Amino acid sequence: MTDREEIMESASHDNAQSAKKNSKTSLLDSGEDFEVLDEEDIDDDEPPPLEDAGEGKVKPTHSENANADPDPTGQVDEWLDVLGNGQLKKKVLKEGEGRDSRPQKGQNVKIRLKTSLVDGTLVEEKPDLAFTLGDGDVIQALDLTVQLMAMGEEALIQTDAKYAYGARGSLEPAVPANAELSLEVKLLEATDAPDLELLPPAEKIALASQKRERGNAHYQRGDYAFAVNSYSIALQITESSSKVDITPEEEEGLLDVKVKCLNNMAASQLKLDHYDAALKSCVSALEHQPDNIKALFRMGKVRVALVLSTIHAELSKLVKKHSEQRGAEQAMYKKMLGNHSDNSSTQKPRAKSSWVRLSWKWLFGATAVAIGGVALSVVIAARN
């Protein structure tokens, strides 16, 4: 498989997960101001600091080398346009052990990382940053490019803010909004992920919590689809079978992480208007903890959203039907009177006024029902 096929397969998968509730823009492309997470929205006593939240032809940027070997390990001093849009580029500084030594998605990798702004300002240095490749544990620029590096390779990566810390920037590390970054990376190690069935329960809880916290960071940045992905990975860890002994306390710890992930996933799915999926997440959480206040509250929010969505659809149908009826009436007047200008001018305001009153009655009634649903959920949760 060529570099282009490998990286575009990865990018396609990530972009499919990051499709927003409105199909016109993706999470990464959106300039919308998402609300910052508050305590009612997520299960975390101390939310993590703000961190990181195309398709094209992969080619060297120098036209005279357009027919060169696409393997970057043989292209020292040549830039590889990873996504073909000029926003993510990679240059080999020191060759590694060859294409066969490249890490695979799902493996645990360790890299040496130096991050700088494009003007040379140092952001941070990490001598041994470890993460799971493809899990969204790091900024997208690293997830996409490290898989193209050979073992021992040193590379320079230049990335647009879109694949780094985006329009919001970051508090830790300190990165300004919309900042392009320069990353110096050396691939140190790549190992297979541990067998979850053989993983000690304490380590399993820690790993699931780490993925959940990463989802919290995505949620805070408004990257709700990436948050759902992280929570899903955490859930897979908590639900995996075990071939080692586990104490009741450890079982309770895994269950606690699982319910928190389900609650936070429901919050993310609500943001994406995935109401049916959010409802399933709430139901699953309540199956384990029937008195969980946050799950009950979110259940109410989901039901309200479903009611309002139905009302919106019905109002749209009524508006369309009314418009068609008015057009038919006007056509009839034309046939009956020949000159319909005076009659239409007197009839139209009355019809419009009547329709506006009807629409608002529907809207206010539906809103009252929705608010009642939320109030009922809150009362039930409070009583419990």
Structure in words:
The chain is of the alpha+beta class and 384 residues long. The protein has 8 helices and 7 strands. Among the domains are: 77-193, Chitinase A, domain 3 (Roll); 194-327, Alpha Horseshoe (Serine Threonine Protein Phosphatase 5, Tetratricopeptide repeat). It has helices spanning 3-17, 140-145, 201-220, 224-239, 248-271, 275-288, 293-337, 341-383; strands at residues 59-60, 79-81, 88-94, 108-117, 122-132, 154-159, 181-191. A hairpin with a 4-residue loop joins β4 and β5. The model is unreliable at 15-39, 45-75 and 343-353 (pLDDT under 50).
Mean pLDDT: 79
Helix content: 40-55%
CATH class of the domain at 194-327: Mainly Alpha
Low-confidence stretches at least 5 residues in length (pLDDT < 50)? 15-39, 45-75, 343-353
CATH architecture of the domain at 194-327: Alpha Horseshoe
Order of helices and strands: HEEEEEHEEHHHHHH
Say what the CATH topology of the domain at 194-327 is: Serine Threonine Protein Phosphatase 5, Tetratricopeptide repeat
Shape: flat
* Beta strand count: 7
In angstroms, what is the radius of gyration?
27 Å
Largest beta-sheet details: 7 strands, antiparallel
The neighbouring-strand order within the major sheet is 1-2-3-6-7-4-5
